[in-house]
Design goal:
Strands 1, 2, 30, 31 and 32 form a 5-stranded antiparallel β-sheet that branches. Strands 15, 16, 17, 18 and 19 form a 5-stranded antiparallel β-sheet that branches. The chain has a 5-stranded mixed β-sheet with strand order 20-21-22-23-27, with no helix packed on it. With 655 residues, it is an alpha+beta fold. The radius of gyration is 37 Å and the shape is elongated. Helix content is 30%, strand content 26%. The N and C termini lie far apart (94 Å). It has 15 helices and 32 strands. It comes from Sander lucioperca. One of its GO terms (cellular component) is lysosomal membrane. This is Regulator of MON1-CCZ1.
Length: 655
């Protein structure tokens, strides 16, 4: 079972003073900071954040119980609420006065429910009668009201990522009014109503703050409503209803996540997955709103994977009394003291830990049998590349049992993402070359995510090792290679020559020359210089390869010098000579280049043949077999004499 835990708590949690040793623990979702507050004489505050920069400790005057405490962005200004009427401020900017200053809410008889920083110097007070948007002037130790809105408020929620505040209004609390904040402006968004479960009259339900969460999923803001089961027969289990909240336009109910059980739940978002924790069974479910269920109504989602608990976590013991051999203490998962915050935070106030929840992808490979669905799931995850490549290898290792259609599906899914990235790159490059056009937004370079599996990834990590596997039939190997090439062609992606080389090498290895001939004849393998050179090198094994190569080169009307260089580098000196003759370039090539190559092979007869060939050329062109001084062949003439004697040198022919 342990390999099936697809959720885990991060290895390095944020540690803070646990609840038993302090008066209060607060969490600020915007800065991801935990405030441990200890009262008595002066109020001691220890702030722990995701890194050392955001951690700080300080003391402040004890002016009553702290109800809420948060830093503005960058720890510049501290806001503390101690009463229902006002909020106190302390500067933490160097060289600014540290004296506290206070702002009372403007609305008479209103109670401050809380506050949210929307910028380093902008803050919103939420009262039971509306919201008040202020700008803070730390140097003047004062605030200026920018805008306010009167509305009856039951409770509120804040999404720091999008700077949107959601207010619960009306008696039942199910009419929600969002406000967006940006650069000193407050924008009232479209209000919407949450559909509450039907209950028998005269009972009435009201919407609880615990059942609502806001989060960004795939770049869009959603309000998530945890709809508990009603006693009516048609909805026996709970579900999570997602409402899409656009900046402009109406909020719409877009997705329903079926939980298939009842009880206490909590929600997180990890890597664009909705995670639903179930306390009584101590398990979690994950949902991917981009995975469509083929056999259900539009946007009704079942869990992607079966319910599993978070991976067991052990708390390392700390402190001077710790014995080195003492084992770490198991952490109580799904504890009633856990608090869950968006998007991916779990806090245990009793143990003094803040964890980030993480998704582990390898267990999904075991639990999700449908390879097409698995690939859709993996391609949307952050750290997916190596897992996807290992899945491809596993599919190919499983052999031929009807797996070719599965292989085709997987290749197509990978190449669709690859093509989309290539097109985005092309569009970006074209936009950069044409220069900025008037009125259009600056073009952003497309981000290459881990989901982009290109041909070199596939070749290096999957295909090259697959072709060398023992016990796999060569027919299946060739079928897989051709399937990948077919998929690339289908998405109009230029196939890299090393893939064609892999096909040719596999065919030659298994003496499938007839198939090689057919592939070339019917242009299944596209023409290229590297491919032509490879064919030339096969001449000794398969004589027709020479002509096939020449035909390809002629079709390419390519630079002949390059081909000669490649052949010489492979010590195929006679092949290079024959090729240069066939294209009519023999009279102009450097004799020294060929003689160097022939001598390097150590084959004396080859050197003799090449030397005589150029002597004959000299005789034909200049009436003398001797080399001109400009050809720098003196050392080769000396070498020839040492090997074969002066008499072996060709004599000038007289007409």
């Amino acid at each position: 079972m342990s390999e099936e835990h697809y959720l885990e708590l991060c290895e390095n949690p944020v540690q803070f003073e646990h609840a038993s040793s302090v008066n209060n623990v607060f969490f600020d979702e915007a800065n991801k900071q935990v405030f441990a507050v200890r009262s008595g004489g002066a109020t001691g505050v220890v702030v722990k954040g995701p890194d050392d920069k955001s951690s700080v400790a300080f003391r402040m005057d004890d002016k009553g119980e702290v109800k809420c405490i948060k830093f503005s962005i960058g720890n510049k200004i501290l806001a503390v609420q101690r009463t229902l009427k006002s909020v106190d401020f302390i500067n933490f900017i160097p060289d600014y006065p540290h004296t506290e200053f206070t702002q009372e809410c403007k609305t008479k008889n209103a109670s401050v429910l809380g506050f949210c920083w929307t910028n380093w110097n902008e803050i919103v007070f939420i009262t039971d009668q509306g919201i008040e948007f202020y700008q803070v002037f730390p140097d003047k130790r004062s605030l200026k009201l920018l805008k306010s809105q009167s509305i009856n408020v039951n409770w509120y929620q804040y999404c720091p990522e999008t700077t949107v505040i959601l207010l619960s209004t009306t008696v039942q609390g199910n009419v929600l009014q969002p406000f967006a904040f940006r650069n000193g402006t407050m924008c009232k968004m479209s209000k919407f109503e949450i559909e509450l479960p039907v209950v028998p009259k005269p009972a009435k339900l009201s919407l609880s703050e615990r059942d609502i969460a806001m989060a960004t999923i795939y770049g869009q803001l959603f309000v998530m409503y945890l709809k508990h089961h009603s006693r009516t027969a048609n909805s026996p289990s709970a579900e999570v209803v997602l409402y899409h909240l656009p900046r402009e336009g109406a909020c719409k109910k877009t997705h329903v996540l079926k939980l298939n059980t009842t009880g206490k739940f909590a929600l997180n978002i990890v890597d664009n997955l909705v995670v639903v924790h179930h306390q009584s069974t101590q398990t979690s479910l994950i949902f991917d709103i981009k995975l469509k269920e083929p056999d259900s109504a539009v946007n009704m989602h079942q869990p992607v994977l079966p319910a599993r608990s978070i991976h067991p976590y052990r708390i390392p013991l700390a402190g001077p009394a710790v014995v080195p051999s003492q084992p770490p203490v198991p952490c109580q998962l799904y504890s009633s003291s856990w608090s869950v915050f968006q998007p991916d935070i779990i806090i245990s106030a009793s143990e003094g830990y803040l964890w980030y929840l993480q998704v582990k992808l390898p267990p999904a490979v075991i639990l999700l049998q449908d390879k097409g669905k698995l690939m859709d799931f993996l391609l949307r995850r952050r750290d997916c590349k190596m897992v996807i490549l290992s899945v491809c290898s596993q599919i190919l290792e499983s052999g031929e049992k009807g797996s070719l259609p599965v292989v085709a599906t997987v290749f197509d899914k990978l190449n669709q993402v690859y093509k989309e990235y290539l097109e985005a790159e092309q569009t970006y490059t074209a936009a950069m070359e044409s220069g900025p056009s008037r009125g259009s937004a600056a073009q952003k370079r497309p981000v290459r995510t881990q989901a982009v599996i290109d041909q070199s990834d596939m070749y290096t990590h999957v295909l090259s090792s697959f072709t060398e596997r023992k016990g796999v039939s060569h027919k299946f190997i060739i079928a897989v290679l051709m399937e990948y090439i077919r998929s690339l062609n289908q998405f109009q992606i230029t196939v890299q020559h090393y893939l064609y080389e892999l096909v040719i090498k596999t065919l030659v290895q298994h003496n499938l020359f007839y198939m090689l001939h057919q592939f070339l004849q019917y242009h299944v393998l596209s023409d290229s210089k590297p491919l032509a050179c490879l064919l030339l090198s096969l001449e000794s094994t398969y004589p027709p390869a020479h002509q096939l190569s020449l035909d390809m080169l002629k079709r390419l009307s390519t630079a002949n010098d390059e081909i000669v260089e490649v052949l010489l580098s492979k010590q195929q000196v006679l092949g290079a000579l024959r090729f240069i003759r066939s294209v009519g370039g023999h009279d102009n090539v450097s004799s020294r280049k060929f003689l160097d190559a022939a001598r390097q092979t150590g084959d004396q007869m080859l050197f003799y043949t090449v030397f005589r060939s150029f002597q004959q050329r000299n005789q034909r062109l200049r009436g003398s077999p001797s080399f001109n001084p400009g050809e720098h062949c003196e050392e080769h003439v000396v070498h020839f004499k040492q090997l074969f004697g002066d008499q072996a040198l060709m004599k000038p022919s007289t007409v």
